[in-house]
Amino acid sequence: MTKLATLAGLMLCTTAASADIRIAHVYGKTGALEAYAEQSHIGLMLGLEYATDGTMEIDGEPIEVLEFDTQLDPAIGRAALAEAYGDADAHIAVGPVSSGVALAMLPVAEEYERILIVEPAVADSITGENWNRYIFRTGRNSSQDAISNAVALGGEDVAIATLAQDYAFGRDGVAAFREALDGTGAEIVHEEYVPTDTTDFTAAAERIFQAMEGVEAEDKKLFIIWAGGGNPMSAINAMDPSRFDVEIATGGNILAALTAYKELPGLEGATYYYYEIPQNPVNDWLVEQHFDRYDSPPDFFTAGGMAAGIAVVEAIREAGGAVDTEALIEAMEGMEWETPKGTMRFRPEDHQALQSMYHFTTEVQEGKDYGVPVLVRELGIDDMDIPVRNQ
């Protein structure tokens, strides 16, 4: 039996089209990014609830959410999205978690002429060279990560090595970071890429240390771009990079990953979200509801999923209640809406959501078993010149 022949058994929805508004969540429900996926789905459902005042209806029309599991496999993701748009007749799809899976899904949205809201996959190429007009992204892209981290880490006489996973997320992230550092005085002097499932970072770290040992610079930093398991930061920190005058730096991450940050108080970077940073009514509601329902704070991708859910509702309302694709595109281009991170705006040129990012430093705080990202500076929409890459 071929892989594609087994797909029907891997999808987690019925294909009966019952509700008037059908939203497909096509995401990596199982696999290495399962924690991200769970947060994303909880956030999506909370966003739909928040935006509809708990009715799960838009102008009296009920919303149905259909779930499909990509298993982090591009072929499965592609087929799942086709199933969502085809047999399930979903009007809008949201997802996936993985950038590699997202890139495989983009042509399906174009083929079916249906909206795909990408959340939380990050690679620039999703709204860059591989973009089409049916793609909108509420998640941040690699350039937003890169520019905010360049603000946090850049400066005169700073030498930076990078460690990233060897696929679209890692390579796009480093490329955007290199570009963002231009003009800051900092320079990337070494790039290291390893497989996504790497758990032993000894060889990679030694190559980085050797490359940095001969560099003359006042500050030497190792900037890590990582998603999922493996925890390279703790592994490399245990090798004592200070022997080579190297400091570890990285962007934000989910709470479970922040346990490694506790080992590095004073670490700087930029993050997409931490629940105590944004001060706005949407985030207040999210934090309160999440503690009430799950006895824990909302996490990185919970906020992103909520932003996507609110965007779906606001787009349909802006389109006068229509789920017609062309009406939705017209409504969404330039649309602003309120999220747990404050105002987001879909840029008309590439449908990337412009949004705030947060320069942070890590603190050890009593009662928390992770390094707490404490706000240094909020970088708003107008503080970052995010390149348009789909031209």
From TrEMBL:
Reading the lineage from the top rank, the first entry is Bacteria
Q: Which Pfam families match?
A: Peripla_BP_6
**Signal as a keyword?**
yes
Q: Which first-to-last residue range defines the signal peptide? A: 1-19
> Which InterPro entries would you find in this protein's record?
BCAA_transport, Leu-bd, Peripla_BP_I
Task: List GO BP terms, alphabetically.
Answer: amino acid transport
Q: What SUPFAM superfamilies does UniProt report for this protein, alphabetically?
A: Periplasmic binding protein-like I
In terms of CDD domains, this protein maps to: PBP1_SBP-like (cd06328)
- Keyword field: Amino-acid transport, Signal, Transport
Keyword Transport, does the record have it? yes
Q: Please state every residue range assigned to the domain named Leucine-binding protein.
A: 21-361
Under the heading PANTHER family, the entry gives: LEUCINE-SPECIFIC-BINDING PROTEIN, PERIPLASMIC BINDING PROTEIN OF ABC TRANSPORTER FOR NATURAL AMINO ACIDS
Q: Which family does it belong to?
A: Belongs to the leucine-binding protein family.
What this protein is called in its record is Branched-chain amino acid ABC transporter, periplasmic branched-chain amino acid-binding protein
Q: Which organism is it from?
A: Oceanicola granulosus (strain ATCC BAA-861 / DSM 15982 / KCTC 12143 / HTCC2516)
